Amino acid sequence: MELGIVGLGRMGGNMAERLRRGGHKVVGFDFSAEAVQRLAESGSAGARSLEELASQLPTPRAIWLMVPAGKPVDDTIARLKPVLAKGDTIVDGGNSNYQDSQRRHRELKAEGFNFIDVGTSGGVWGLKEGYSLMVGGDAEPVERLYPIFETLAPGKDKGWGHVGPAGAGHFVTMVHNGIEYGMMQAYAEGFTIMQRKEEMDLDLAQIAEVWRYGSVVRSWLLDLTAAALEKNPELDGLEAWVEDSGEGRWTVFEAINLNVSAPVITESLLRRIRSREDNNFTDRMIAIMRNQFGGHAVKAEKEAAA
After folding, report:
1. Going by C-beta distance under 8 Å and a sequence separation of 6 or more, which residues neighbour residue 7?
2. Fewer CB within 10 Å of terminal CB in the chain, N or C?
3. 222: closest CA among 207, 238, 243, 241?
4. Does the N-terminal peptide bond of residue 165 adopt cis geometry, omega within 30 degrees of 0?
5. Which of 45-54, 165-174, 239-248, 284-293 has the lowest average pLDDT?
6. Residue 287: which residues within 8 A CB-CB, separation 6 or more?
7. 89 within 8 A of 145, measured Cβ to Cβ
């Protein structure tokens, strides 16, 4: 099967390579000429424009977008529509908000195009291990792309699924990433507790390796944690700054709207935001309040920095 990919960053490029190895023809475009060149050198076809991309694909075309969420997706779709034909399918494989995906589906369907939203998990390991794909959209275009999903996934019949109508793919991925926030926070807190127990001189890399087998907390995330601790057990050179892609925020907002209590995911999001605050005002407020009601010691800024 033939597929166009727009956006040849690390993940888009890896997906193109996995498809090529699986016997599919891939035509790729990126605003970076170097990325297009790398794709061509790997054995796939590169395009210098969206027009050239569309011209190299048979109809009905399928074009997979791997561009940043929000306006870049809308801008790319707007530029694609004039070079596409009715019946062609646009796939958004990025981290879009599910409500944007529902809107794009409505708008494109009214103009005769198909739209599929695919939540994609697997990161930099997807090329080797395969990607977890959560697919949303109408049945007919989704079924037509089964060979693509089966090749990108860890196995033909595992690691992917048509989870529901338009927007469902990105909704399920949003919740998946919210759960991921909570898991990462729990692992981080647990390892920090052990790291602070200095008199036991615990080897965190060894413990992570022990937990990987037979333990009820074993997971692929723990496998990655063990590998990271083996390379850098003291986390030297790392800044305590944790970014978020927006998926955790959307999950929390959705939980509130649905009257679902989600304290673990919510707190893990707040901790990420907290990580970016230098000598944050909140902690200083708590310290001064404790001093006022209980006479607890308060460290001056110089002391705190020493």
Report:
1. 30, 65, 66, 67, 94
2. C
3. 207
4. no
5. 284-293
6. 296, 298, 299
7. yes
Q: In this structure, what token pair is assigned to residue 252?
A: 């929390």
Which residues does residue 121 pair with via DSSP β-bridges, in sequence order? Answer: 132
* Beta strands 62-65 and 89-92, pairing class: parallel
The pTM (predicted TM-score) of the whole model is 0.89
The two structure tokens encoding residue 278:
């230098």
Would you state the pLDDT for residue 306?
45
Q: Distance between CA atoms of 175 and 144, rounded to whole angstroms? A: 26
The two structure tokens encoding residue 2: 């033939």
Evaluate whether 213 touches 226 at the Cβ level (below 8 Å).
no
Calpha distance 167→176 (Å, rounded)? 14
